[in-house]
Amino acid sequence: MEESNLFIPFRQKAYEGEALVKRVSDFYTFMNQRRSLREFSSKPVPKEVIEKIIMTASSAPSGANKQPWTFCAISNPEVKKQIREAAEKEEKINYSGRMSDSWLQDLKPFATDEHKPFLEIAPWIIVVFKRSFEVEKANKKNNYYVSESVGLAAGFLLTAIHNAGLVALTHTPSPMNFLVKVLDRPKNEKPYLLIPVGYAPENATVPDIKRKSKEEVIVFYE
User: Fold this and answer.
1) Which of 1, 69, 70, 127 is 20 to 30 A (C-alpha) from 148?
2) How far apart are CA 159 and CA 31, in angstroms?
3) How confident is the chain (222 residues) per 10-residue block, as mean pLDDT?
4) Range of the domain at 48
């Protein structure tokens, strides 16, 4: 990536009045249908689709435009099997003692446990890594606001997945250091999210939960 002090014209279509209200209302309705799934179809998803989804995620803002992320997209069955085995090993320890009683109680509505078959069933796994620093010609250069930047990119990623008519799950087996070993990532990368991606299977179900109301999440100062 070349450095540049040049500025170029900004171009983006603007909306006003009823067109603006309709546009944001339609998008809210669409995004409010997004749900996390723990069930996946094995139906293939083209590599080109995953590539475009990831590049959409990579259009997210980042501190000093450092873009401190790497997205590993895995479809290889053997690698997915290794990831599942390592994840289930950590999750078994979590459910057997690492997690507090209150945490386990909060998870009950989701009927989740240490078994993660979706890691092999989903056609793709996207692992998001955050890059705390870069190494350029043997020199270490820090990135800025890394967690915030990668969090924004992950949000863009989930939005792009939903826009494609696909489903995803933000899976965070803790600790996730096994992903560095399985995927042979460099020392400047740390796993941030593990996201299976694919189509929803027929007759898929999700927990009957509610999102917070606007009164609970918005505070206006007018």
Assistant:
1) 1
2) 8
3) 77 97 98 96 98 98 97 98 94 82 84 91 98 89 96 98 98 91 96 98 93 97 98
4) 36-201
